[in-house]
Amino acid sequence: MKTIGILGGLTWQSTVTYYREINRLTQEQLGGENSAKILLSSVNFAEIDVAQRAGDRFKQIELLLDGAKALERGGADFWLMACNTTHQWAEILTQEINLPFLHIAKVAAAAIKKDGLRAVALTGTRYTMEQAFYRRALEEEGLKVWIPNEEEKTELVRIVDEELTHGIREEASLQKFWMMAKRWQQQGAQGVVLGCTEIGLLVQEAHPGMPIFDTALLHATKAVELALTTEELLKEWDYRQRRELQ
Amino acid sequence: MKTIGILAGMTWQSSLTYYREINQTVQDRLGADHSAKIALYSVDFEEIAEVHRNGNWPEAERILAEAGLKLKAAGADFILMATNTMHLVADAVIQATDLPFLHIAEVTADALLADGIKKVVLTGTRFTMELPFYTEILTKRGLEVMIPNEPQREFIHQTIYEELGHGIIREDTLKTFQTLLLDMKQQGAEAVILGCTEIGLLINESNSPLPVYDTALLHARAAAELALKE
């Protein structure tokens, strides 16, 4: 069994989801008393958040790199970031960390295509919805991506920042989410990507006729699959490998 | 803030309790956006369970000393083991890592003594209840330790392995546990140590006849405080 390296604490609530799911799935697949081999490097989110709000990209990268280097030094066999937003730095981070990297948007794209869908709405933090990195990662896989409008983005960000990062789950916010999803569906979206590990805490079940793609759960599931599989498949999923091929 | 090194996965359910409690404590102390700096290595519990079955403790020493070195390499400033039972091999981890080590029995003794408690019941796996590694620390600190009798130990041990370790919580098991604690109370116990990180999934302050010292929570909070200390 390979050791899964997790860069976590982004926020710690969503790291709990990863740790639980990875262990639950490992136990399910291997039976007995098995659990996953995990090296977790959990950072102080406040430091990242301050740098993010100040627009200090160098500080953000430095903090994430510190966390990721701990995974490399501690002997992880491959690594992932338990957060969608910080994937905006995936390109730079993977150049510095000499380990296979499992990219969350690539995992999400594969799951969407496997279900036969071609067009999805993308929800997440403001960075994830507005900056190109995440949308492009999905588009590279041949998907059409809807971004919520300004009003919808503001509401989604409020729900994440004021409620979900503090562990609060409001029924009213869940209803708002589904009202938005209905609008996106009318515009042609066939499913919704929960592109922020927190949003999965809110939307735990799909509505009939509107599939959701909980990126945290998909990511954790793929990590278990890779921990239990061959070097070849791991190589195939390594984000660095994909970049070299392009 | 110091980086807390956690030897985890024994079992992963109780490691989640540690991870939550440590982060919650840091969040309460420093503000909502803060979280703890943690390096955590989670072992495959099957390898540890195998040692529990065949008694090959040197194998456990090897696995956990190696995991401890991974935490050191990852930058841990001090180390704790998120388990009571495996403190049986604590010395191997301490020697291998040469890092400050936060021992769960010492943390528990601190909490009991701070509350003026003198006579206490120890519950845990058979290893924790029967071998000297845990009780020795408590008695050395001046506590009188009551160990459950043979059938009671069998019941507690089985509950941990067959139910709590798999996340199973049963009403009738809770009732039997409550009766056992009531019996101890009549024999003079002032408190109960939940000396296995799993027992807290079943027994807590609100359903126990004796004041509860949940070692996992005490240990996690002590780790957070140590990390925040200047």
Report on the architecture of this protein.
Chain A has helices spanning 12-30, 45-53, 57-73, 90-96, 104-114, 126-130, 132-139, 150-163, 171-186, 199-202, 215-227, 231-237, 239-245; strands spanning 3-8, 37-42, 78-81, 119-123, 144-146, 191-194, 212-214. Chain A folds into two domains: 3-103 and 217-245, Rossmann fold; 105-214, Rossmann fold, CATH 3.40.50. With 246 residues, chain A is an alpha/beta fold. Chain A is globular and about 45 Å long. The two termini of chain A are 30 Å apart. Chain A has a four-stranded parallel sheet, with helices on both faces. Chain A has a three-stranded parallel sheet with strand order 2-1-3. Chain A contains 13 helices and seven strands. Chain B has 230 residues and is an alpha/beta fold. Chain B has two domains: 4-103 and 218-228, Rossmann fold (3-Layer(aba) Sandwich); 104-214, 3-Layer(aba) Sandwich (Rossmann fold). Chain B has helices at residues 12-30, 45-54, 57-73, 90-97, 104-114, 126-130, 132-140, 150-163, 171-186, 215-228; strands spanning 4-8, 38-42, 78-81, 119-123, 144-146, 191-194, 212-214. In chain B, the strands form two sheets. Chain B has a four-stranded parallel sheet with strand order 5-4-6-7, with helices on both faces. A three-stranded parallel sheet of chain B has the order 2-1-3, with helices on both faces. The longest helix of chain B is centred in the first third of the chain and has 19 residues, at 12-30. Chain B is globular, with a radius of gyration of 17 Å. Classes of the chains: A alpha/beta (246), B alpha/beta (230). Chain A binds chain B through residues 1, 9, 11-12, 15-16, 19-20, 23, 30, 32-46, 49, 70-71, 73-75, 165-166, and chain B through 1, 8-9, 11-12, 15-16, 19-20, 23, 26, 30-46, 48-49, 70-71, 73-75, 165. Strand 2 of chain A pairs antiparallel with strand 2 (38-42) of chain B.
